[in-house]
UniProtKB/TrEMBL annotation:
GO molecular function, one term: ATP binding
Xref: CDD domains: STKc_IRAK
Pro residues bias: start-end ranges: 381-394
InterPro entries the UniProt entry points to: Kinase-like_dom_sf, Plant_Ser_Thr_Prot_Kinase, Prot_kinase_dom, Ser-Thr/Tyr_kinase_cat_dom, Ser/Thr_kinase_AS
PANTHER family registered for this protein in UniProt: OS01G0588500 PROTEIN-RELATED (PTHR45621)
Superkingdom of the source species: Eukaryota
Record-annotated Protein kinase domain positions: 81-378
Region (Disordered): 373-417
Native source species: Oryza glumipatula
UniProt-listed SUPFAM superfamilies: Protein kinase-like (PK-like)
Protein name: Protein kinase domain-containing protein
Gene3D superfamilies: Phosphorylase Kinase, domain 1 (3.30.200.20), Transferase(Phosphotransferase) domain 1 (1.10.510.10)
Pfam families for the chain: PK_Tyr_Ser-Thr (PF07714)
């Protein structure tokens, strides 16, 4: 699932020759502040010196820790970007498995020959991710340091290659690919329930670190299952920081920015207003929680139209009803904790609150998942309703709604159901009569559902 862009942004890249040191940030400083006018006018006075430093200033402190690779070295490590070593592809370009001959043992996994195994992302010059996103990823990943965030080893930048400008990134290698692969690729074994909870908790802690654990707040802005990498122990690591942004500062409540992200994961309030906050990430986390719980994609065109959006489909299976048993991934075959599943669903709906202020912080979300993980029983669900049976009724007119229209709809519903109950009491025991009553009750429930939806809107 690719990214969407609601507004076009012009790259402000400058074709200036640069030395083979860390990417020069002073030249491209506007690339990171063209959407943050609050920061662009920040002065360099002593008064501001006590304020949190920007990502640019933090990067300049850590840039020396990244390795500047030569293009020839990365060509050699990937077999000249061999198709056999390609492990991923997207709008940004391609990712290759590489083998570095280095004595630096801290860089990551090693193969039998003692070479360090890495992932090399080679950007497509004509792709969706340009120099601006490449530079953002270098900056943010140089600054962050957390077990649930992917480690950037180095980069390669050349403007005089045979094939034009080249932008590459070198990461630690994640042998178990992405969460997306394991949730939606039927060729992979089903992810166990406890592993799913562990992945959810790791993602929550990674986001919590970005929001609260740094000198500045970082808004990830592109959380989705394909950006959650899994190491050899299925520990999750967030990757792809090309859309990351600094959070609001100086008393501001949000960052105004062009709307970017992935359909199905981006918070509706951010899409509608362009106002980005940490709670935008929380909404995306709620979608990923539902993916882990249900095994369904955030948006799936292969499903019937009413069920294509995961959030819409999941709302029709509320906890506390027998319809909830349709929600958990059927591939789990009942091998999950029913109480924990309800807790995860409840947390997901809190994260998916319409109002950003009503969503929990990622610290709260992490604590909720830790509590859910204590339910160790794998008791499975009640027997789920058969496919083709009537959908759960959605008549909520009597729950907190006191409008005249809602009361009228509720009264009409009670009258219809009472009338049908009398019909059922006087009906013959013959199967045909029972079927007739059942059909009328189903039709009445559907009518009620439609009427209530009209009232609620």
């Amino acid at each position: 699932m690719g990214c969407f862009f609601y507004s076009r942004e012009k790259n402000k890249n400058k074709n200036k020759k640069q030395s083979r040191s860390s990417p020069t940030l002073t030249v491209d400083k506007d690339d990171f502040r063209d959407e943050m006018s609050q920061k662009a006018n920040r002065s360099c006075s002593l008064v501001v010196a006590s304020s949190p430093r920007s990502i640019l200033e933090l990067y300049e402190e850590r840039a020396h820790e990244l390795r500047d690779f030569r293009l020839a070295e990365l060509r050699s490590s990937t077999g000249n970007f061999s198709r056999e070593l390609k492990i991923g592809e997207g709008g940004f370009g391609s990712v290759y498995k590489g083998f570095l001959k280095t004595s630096c043992g801290h860089l990551g996994l090693r193969n039998d020959s003692g070479n360090v195994v890495v992932a090399v992302k080679k950007l497509n010059p004509n792709g969706m991710q340009g120099h601006k996103q490449w530079l953002a990823e270098v900056q943010f990943l140089a600054v962050v340091d957390h077990p649930n965030l992917v480690k950037l080893i180095g980069y390669c930048r050349t403007d005089d290659g045979e094939q034009g400008p080249q932008r590459l990134l070198v990461y630690e290698f994640m042998p178990n690919k992405t969460l997306e692969y394991h949730l939606f690729n039927k060729a992979y074994p089903t992810l166990p329930w406890k592993t799913r909870l562990s992945i959810a908790l790791g993602v929550a802690k990674g986001l919590q670190y970005l929001h609260e654990g740094l000198e500045i707040q970082v808004i990830y802005r592109d959380l989705k299952s394909s950006n959650v990498l899994l190491d050899e122990e299925f520990r999750p690591k967030l990757s792809d920081f090309g859309l990351a942004r600094e959070g609001p500062v100086d008393g501001q409540t949000h960052v105004s920015t062009a709307v970017m992200g992935t359909y199905g994961y981006a918070a509706p309030d951010y899409v509608e207003t362009g106002r980005l906050t940490a709670r935008s990430d929380v909404w995306s986390f709620g979608v990923v929680l539902l993916e882990l719980l249900t095994g369904h994609r955030a948006f799936d065109r292969s499903r019937p139209r009413p069920d294509q959006k995961l959030v819409d489909w999941a709302r029709r299976h509320p906890a506390g009803t027998r319809w909830f048993s349709r929600l958990p991934d059927p591939r789990l075959a009942g091998r999950y904790s029913h109480r924990a599943a309800q807790d995860v669903a409840a947390l997901a709906w809190r994260c998916l609150a319409d109002r950003a202020g009503e969503r929990p912080s990622m610290a709260e979300a992490a604590r909720a998942l830790e509590r859910a993980a204590r339910h160790g029983e794998l008791d499975g669900p009640p027997e789920p309703p058969e496919e083709g049976s009537p959908p759960p009724p959605r008549c909520h007119a009597g729950s907190g709604s006191s409008s005249p229209e809602a009361k009228k709809a509720a009264t009409a519903k009670r009258r219809r159901m009472a009338h049908l109950a009398k019909l059922a009491a006087g009906a013959s025991a013959a199967p045909a009569a029972r079927r007739l009553v059942h059909m009328k009750m189903t039709k009445a429930a559907a009518t009620c559902n439609a009427g209530t939806q009209h009232v609620e809107t």
